[in-house]
Design a protein that fits this description.
The protein is mainly α. The protein has helices at residues 2-11, 21-46, 50-58, 63-93, 105-116, 119-147. The chain has one domain (2-147): Orthogonal Bundle (MetI-like fold), CATH 1.10.3720.10.
Length: 153
Amino acid sequence: MLIQLFLIYYGLPEIGIRLNPFLAGIMGLGLNYAASEAENYRAGIQCIPRGQTEAALALGMSQWQTLRQVVLPQALRVVIPPVTNDFIAMFKDSSIVSVITMVELTKVYGMLAMASSDYIGLGLLTAAIYFGLSYPASIFANWLERRLRYDHR
């Protein structure tokens, strides 16, 4: 991801494409995680037994109805854990965008710690902020997984 960020922020201007650090960071994170997310969704859709699709088509549903009403609801249950894990990892990886002059939490920590020489206290505070922002996402994902379980219905 670091190389992607460097190529996007420092390499693209060589061919005439200039991006501000925020947009370059979004593009870098997006490109880095897009393939992984696509694979999560592909695996979720393909894990649904072929018989589900065949049964829906035999009942007269169109391909679109079959996908929307039969396959995707079942695939959603399967993809929640890896997708949630990837989004939490992406949130944590967002600290890497500081290498392209994007000021975010870790960069602010570095600047404040250097100015005050309090690396431990501010480091623990920064870690607590990351934890405080990540943990609710994992709690929500756990709740959603339990809510969508097959045996729960």
